[in-house]
Design brief:
- A five-stranded mixed β-sheet has the order 3-2-1-4-7. Strands 5-10-9 form a three-stranded mixed β-sheet, with no helix packed on it.
- Helix 1 links the parallel strand 1 and strand 2.
- About 35% of the residues are buried.
- It is α/β, with parallel strands linked by helices and about 280 residues long.
- It has ten helices and ten strands.
Length: about 280
């Protein structure tokens, strides 16, 4: 069983290197994208079986924009064009942390060979969270921001078009029959990835549509998976995330979370969001 990790990073090269070391395994290869505006040096990233995308080919990722999807697609294409053999692609963050030794992770994936792990939320939950609005409206690039002023403008835009959950006017026309939503982090088989990439190559309109959606990284791959593979095949994601009241970013895990992480180890492989600048004790997991 071979796994190609597609890792999105933007800070703390020391933590990235510790993560690479913690997951080091002859059956795991790492392909790393560093946000173009990040100040960390790509030359400082070290580990075995790693490929770092050059800065000239990297993407400036902005909150809520298409950059996260674009960077992920570049990682996938880099993996597919490499000479590395792989059975799975695992989309991870540089702020993830494994809950198991790498040998146990490989064993788990082997036991579930052919299955896909990607969160796809029920329609009711997506609607209640107001996610449908993300794809129903056209968002110009300047509106895709977490800036306070832009957030006010965005809420006014939602109100004028029917409220946070429904869209009465300005609804975009689309060839997408149904949108799906969920966490951007997934673990997908090569078979599924190949089928999804074949669809994208033959249907450029799909990618173009999401370039003017809001937070497309939480819908692009879910919708693509649902259309090409089918949501019934999807299994829950393998990464623990604590959102609490924060919808824009998950809570940073600390040593206070060690108890619940020990319990979650029974069914999950990773935990996020980890920041060793705040608490490095999680490395003891």
């Amino acid at each position: 069983m071979k796994i190609a990790v597609a890792m999105l990073c933007h800070k703390n090269v020391q933590q990235i290197n510790l993560l690479l070391r913690a997951m080091e395994n002859e059956n795991i290869s790492f392909f790393i994208h560093v946000d173009r505006k990040s100040t960390i040096s790509r030359d400082d990233i070290s580990g075995k079986n790693i490929t770092v995308i050059p800065k000239v080919c990297s993407v400036d990722i902005q909150w809520g924009g298409f950059g996260m999807v674009e960077a992920t697609l570049r990682l996938i294409e880099t993996i597919r064009q490499s000479n590395q053999k792989y059975d799975y692609i695992w989309l991870m963050s540089g702020q993830d942390w494994p809950l198991h030794p790498s040998d146990e992770i490989i064993k788990y994936v082997e036991q579930h060979n052919g299955e896909d792990f990607i969160e796809i939320l029920p329609d009711k939950e997506s609607f209640e969270r107001g996610y449908w609005k993300r794809n129903e409206l056209y968002y110009p690039n300047w509106m895709v921001s977490n800036d306070t002023y832009i957030k006010v403008v965005k809420h006014l835009f939602w109100f004028m078009t029917g409220g946070r959950k429904s869209t009465n006017v300005c609804k975009r026309r689309t060839r997408v029959e149904k949108f799906y939503y969920g966490s951007q982090w997934w673990l997908l088989s090569k078979h599924s990835i190949d089928a999804m990439m074949f669809f994208l190559k033959s249907n450029e309109w799909y990618t173009d549509y999401f370039k003017h959606s809001l937070v497309p990284d939480e819908s692009f791959f879910q919708t693509l998976y649902g259309r090409v593979i089918g949501v019934k095949k999807a299994r829950p994601a393998v990464c623990y995330v604590n959102w609490k009241e924060n919808r824009n970013s998950p809570e940073v895990l600390t040593c206070d979370d060690l108890g619940i992480l020990e319990k979650e180890k029974e069914r999950l492989l990773l935990a996020r969001k980890v920041d060793f600048d705040s608490d490095s004790d999680l490395a003891k997991l």
